[in-house]
């Protein structure tokens, strides 16, 4: 069958934006030369000529509740999982269909962990996890590094934090990747400088995960790239409410007491502090009418020194109004009638290390302070 026309990069970018992507960068597959076999997308689609990276902004307001210390669910959902697993795929589907209708094959890769033979957190190879289907091939599954893909598609640079920064949104972006046999004009590698090495990301990182001075350097498409050394496990603990490299003592198996997402610390250093700094210095092209934070005013962080207490205002309103929930009754209900969730959630009558004891004598998650 003959196709009406070949797609150009401009066509693909226009379609991607029309379908809902905020950013679109394109690279050719040769730019992956030198990638470790286990991370090389050319093993996924040997016939691919180009890769397309779509960027989706993290709404600044999705971080607001954590910034104020009043709502912890919106960033993990609307700023994180829903972009990776709902919005990204919803935009990829029509783009894939559009390209298929022009005769091209497209492999859509979303940011979701599957059976990768490389641990997505530590980057370590998982011994005994899988074996190559034939000699010369990498183990299934090949794990493509999305931030490296974004760099190779000319969309911005790595910040010291190792978070990818774009000139439009700074650190507020998530990515999906598409591999295609369409031969598309690649974007130039980004040569600007967004990160000024202010190290606000290090200073405010809840998990103490980013090194102040040690760095990692790699070469990508002939360009030397550097970022601060990241302790991934410290980050894993920090983003889930742990502190100073320790684990949140209430992080247990689902359902958790604070159970609707992992990133409840709201990327305090690598995203919030960084974004705030870059906005203050007018480094980003997408601007707002109002500042995210007042740089002179200290912003909210978890205060682990104070005991749990209900403020008089809440007590007056709820006791005299709709009433206070009986924590113990709720715990018992969960344990007996709601599939035993309370036990797994870390609400316990026995003190938990690192936890705090509330008025009802139950230990609770300090993130609820
Ligand atoms: S906070 Fe500063 S040093 Fe860290 S990534 Fe952002 S701009 Fe770079
Ligand atoms: S997500 Fe949190 S813990 Fe991880 S690097 Fe960013 S600020 Fe640090």
Keywords:
369 residues; 2 domains; four-stranded antiparallel β-sheet; 27% helix; binds iron/sulfur cluster
Descriptive notes:
Helices cover about 25% and strands about 15% of the residues. It is of the alpha+beta class and about 375 residues long. Strands 1-2-6-3 form a four-stranded antiparallel β-sheet, with helices on both faces. It is globular, with a radius of gyration of 23 Å. The relative contact order is 0.13. It binds iron/sulfur cluster (2 copies). One iron/sulfur cluster binds near residues 161, 198, 201 and 273.
In a nutshell, what does this entry contain?
This protein is of the alpha+beta class and 369 residues long.
Spatial strand arrangement across the major sheet? 1-2-6-3
Helix-strand makeup class: alpha+beta
The biggest sheet, with number of strands, parallel, antiparallel or mixed sense and barrel status, is: 4 strands, antiparallel
Strand content: 5-15%
Count of runs of 4 or more consecutive helical residues: 10
Determine Rg (CA atoms, Å): 23 Å
The first-to-last residue Cα distance is 64 Å
**Which small-molecule species are bound to the chains here?**
iron/sulfur cluster
Instruction: Indicate the overall shape.
Output: globular
Low-confidence residue ranges = 339-346
